[in-house]
Amino acid sequence: MSHDRTGDVIDDEPPAIPTHDPRCDGRGWVDRDGDPAIPCYDCKPNLRPAELRRALLDADKRRENP
Q1: Which residues does the annotated region (Disordered) include (predicted)?
Q2: Residue 40 CB: number of other CB atoms within 10 A?
């Protein structure tokens, strides 16, 4: 734990970003009975819409080659 110039505590670790949808039922679905059914994109990445898959690929490429 560190402090800034005024003595306030600075969190050394960034806040945790949830990586998994808390509504997921553990089998890969957020709402299986919905119309249309809503998949958990962390459990079933192949069901992500194409624009989300492309955005993730682009972000990964930028991270590898800054």
Answers
A1: 1-28
A2: 19
Tens of pLDDT, residues 7-57? 888 776 665 556 788 889 888 899 989 899 899 988 888 888 887 777 777
User: What is the token pair recorded at 18?
Assistant: 């949830």
- Give the total residue count for the chain: 66
Single out the residue of 55, 22, 16 nearest to residue 45, CA to CA: 55
Q: Tokens at residue 54, please?
A: 């492309």
Q: Please name every residue paired with 29 in a beta bridge, in sequence order, or none if there are none.
A: 39
Q: What is the CA radius of gyration of the chain?
A: 18
